[in-house]
Amino acid sequence: MDRTVIDLGGGFTARRLSLDQYREACARLEGRIFGGGWGYAFDPPHKPPPPLGESCSWGLFAGDELIGWSHAHQRDERTVYMADSGVLPEHQGRGLYTRLLPHLLAAFRAAGYTLVQSHHRATNNRVLIPKLRAGFCLQGLNLYEGGLNVSLTLSLDPVYHDAMHVRSGFRAPHGDTARRLGLPPTPPAERTPVPSIPMPGGQGEDTDLGGGYVLRPVPYEVYYGIYTRLEAAAYDSVSLDWPTPPRLEPPEVPRYVWLVGHAGEVAGWQYSRQWDARTAYMVNTALLPAHRGRGLYTRLLPAVLGALQAGGYDRVRSHHHATNTAVLVPKLRHGFCIQGLTVDDHGVMAVLMHSFGPLYRAYMEVRSGMQPPLGAVARALGLTPAARPGTGAPADPSCGPDGASPA
């Protein structure tokens, strides 16, 4: 692999390390980086580790000082595993991981790998966000000795990447993707013409989203009539086509509906409803194709969340196709956390949860293993609060799993 020094800007560089140099740095600095986690302390192992495949270790430097690392090793004939990344706390929050990541992926590509895999704590959004933005896709969750992990995979083969969209139900199979999945080739469906629908009157004040866009509360019946006319133009996803209509009426719960308007016409919508006594559910958000890529989803989120919080909810839940990074990233940026995967009529869906209060957010950090049970969350779980972590070595004696917060 490439052995050049990478200039990351601001006086920071990345340089290749030998495996022994990486292990020495890990032993010396891991307590300062990973010491706040909550892992299970195994007894010393009785079996030697399996032989390590090709490895790739990079050190992060501020001048000549080693401040962090990224270590990967070969998992099989196609896959490299990003096992461990970390940056000293005083250098976190500067975008170092985000700037290093493209160079690492280029090195993996040059070395002949097809897949890049990694695992991260489910609440570690500071690492999950740059990984998802780089093209990684959510592929699973794993409960292990360190907590709850999210499994991510990046395909350096665009056809395999598209196949993951097919698996999740986000897109229909076409061309080479269909062939490799053993399906008959089908031409891409022609995009449905988008009807022009004037913005109806609302039942409250508009929220200015900037750029000529507004968010307008409307009755559910108004939204649903528009949704049925625009659904085919708004989605490329593949859902189960039930052969018969439902035999039961939907439960009566409070509903919250907004339309996105631009130049007097409907550009999209957001529909939420009550999930349970504490939780609202963001059911359905869509922007018509001509209005995507303008940051609208990011701008409407605070308005919708604010309205749901004012409605008395403690949490907000949402489901998204597991490969729909364009929605997952802004949700994670707004404090949502990955809490599961589910398979439903629409495909393989990621379950996200946002908490308005600090107690449940701290609870999620405990469940993921990012933080030990401290203070109020320990008492709420019926536990004696753990001592606040110092700078000693973490309970898990290994250096993984790629779990610092270096972004």
Search tags:
407 residues, alpha+beta, Aminopeptidase, 2 domains, eight-stranded mixed β-sheet, globular, disordered C terminus, acyltransferase
- Share of residues in strands: 25-35%
Tally of DSSP helical segments: 10
Structural class: alpha+beta
What's the story with the biggest beta sheet?
8 strands, mixed
Numbering strands along the chain, what is their spatial order in the largest sheet? 1-2-3-4-5-6-8-7
What is the typical, i.e. mean, pLDDT?
91
CATH fold call of the largest domain: Aminopeptidase
CATH architecture call of the largest domain = 3-Layer(aba) Sandwich
Order of helices and strands: EEHEEEHEHEEHHEEHEEEHEHEEHH
Share of helical residues: 25-40%
Per DSSP E runs of 2 or more residues, the count of β-strands stands at 16
- Span between termini: 24 Å
Radius of gyration: 23 Å
Q: Which consecutive residue ranges, at least 5 long each, have pLDDT under 50?
A: 390-407
Tell me the name of the CATH class of the largest domain: Alpha Beta
- Assign the CATH superfamily of the largest domain: Gcn5-related N-acetyltransferase (GNAT)
Tally of structural domains: 2
Shape: globular
